[in-house]
C-alpha cells in the first residue's frame, strides 16, 4: 500500500482523535516500517490493519467504523490532490463508474506499484449503480467509506446496500447505490 494512504491515515488520527493517539498506536503496533511513512514509499497493507486495530482498542470504536470514516475522509483528500480526475463530472454515480477504466488506470501510471482493487459496474436504472469490488486485500470498508465521501463531495444522497460475495480468495462485495432524487 502506498505511503500516501498511511500518511493520510496518521493525519486523520491526529485530527479526529489527537496527536498523542497517533504516536500511541504507532508505538504499540510494532510495525516492520517503524511507522515512518513517506508518500512515495510502499508498505505492507497489513500495517494499516495493525494501526486500525490498535486505534480500535484504544478508542473503543469498532474497526469497520474506523476504516469507513477514514475512507470518507480520504476521498476529500484524493479529490483535492487530483482535481484533474474530477473535471467535467457532476455526479457521484458518474464518477464511480470511472474508477476502474479511468481513475485507477491513471493512478497506475503515476504509481506503477500501486495495489489496486478492481471494480465491475452496471446501471440497472438512471439513479442506480451496481459496483462490485474485488481485491486481494480485505478493504471493503475503505471502499464503502470512499463511496460515502464521493457522495458527500458531489452533494448526492446515496443509499448504499452492501452484500459480501462468497469467494475463494480475497474479498468481493456488491454495492448497490441508489441516488435519492
Ligand atoms: C480521485 C479519486 C481516487 C484516486 C486518486 C484513487 C487513488 C488510489 C490510490 C493511490 C490507492 C492506493 C494504492 C496503493 O496503496 O498501492 C487506491 C486504493 C484504493 N482505492 Fe482508489 N482512488 C480514488 C477513488 C476511489 C474510490 C471512489 C473508491 C471506491 C469506490 C476507491 C477504492 C479504492 C480502494 C478500496 C483501495 C484500496 C486497495 C484495495 O482495496 O485493494 N478509490 N486508490
From TrEMBL:
<dbReference type="InterPro" id="IPR038158">
    <property type="entry name" value="H-NOX_domain_sf"/>
</dbReference>
<dbReference type="Pfam" id="PF07700">
    <property type="entry name" value="HNOB"/>
</dbReference>
<dbReference type="GO" id="GO:0020037">
    <property type="term" value="F:heme binding"/>
</dbReference>
<dbReference type="InterPro" id="IPR011644">
    <property type="entry name" value="Heme_NO-bd"/>
</dbReference>
<feature type="domain" description="Heme NO-binding">
    <location>
        <begin position="2"/>
        <end position="161"/>
    </location>
</feature>
<dbReference type="InterPro" id="IPR024096">
    <property type="entry name" value="NO_sig/Golgi_transp_ligand-bd"/>
</dbReference>
<protein>
    <submittedName>
        <fullName>Heme-NO-binding</fullName>
    </submittedName>
</protein>
Amino acid at each position: 500500500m502506498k505511503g500516501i494512504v498511511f500518511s493520510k491515515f496518521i493525519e486523520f488520527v491526529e485530527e479526529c482523535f489527537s496527536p498523542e493517539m497517533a504516536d500511541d498506536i504507532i508505538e504499540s503496533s510494532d510495525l516492520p516500517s517503524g511507522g515512518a511513512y513517506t508518500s512515495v514509499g510502499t508498505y505492507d497493507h497489513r500495517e494499516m490493519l495493525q494501526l486500525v486495530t490498535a486505534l480500535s482498542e484504544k478508542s473503543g470504536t469498532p474497526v469497520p467504523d474506523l476504516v469507513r470514516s477514514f475512507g470518507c475522509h480520504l476521498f476529500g483528500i484524493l479529490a483535492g490532490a487530483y482535481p484533474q480526475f474530477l473535471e467535467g463530472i457532476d455526479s457521484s454515480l458518474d464518477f464511480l463508474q470511472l474508477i476502474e477504466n479511468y481513475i485507477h488506470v491513471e493512478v497506475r501510471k503515476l504509481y506503477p506499484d500501486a495495489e489496486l482493487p478492481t471494480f465491475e459496474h452496471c446501471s440497472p436504472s438512471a439513479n442506480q449503480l451496481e459496483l462490485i469490488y474485488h481485491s486481494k486485500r480485505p478493504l471493503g470498508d475503505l471502499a464503502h467509506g470512499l463511496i460515502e465521501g464521493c457522495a458527500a463531495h458531489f452533494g448526492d444522497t446515496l443509499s448504499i446496500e452492501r452484500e459480501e460475495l462468497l469467494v475463494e480468495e480475497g474479498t468481493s462485495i456488491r454495492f448497490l447505490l441508489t441516488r435519492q432524487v
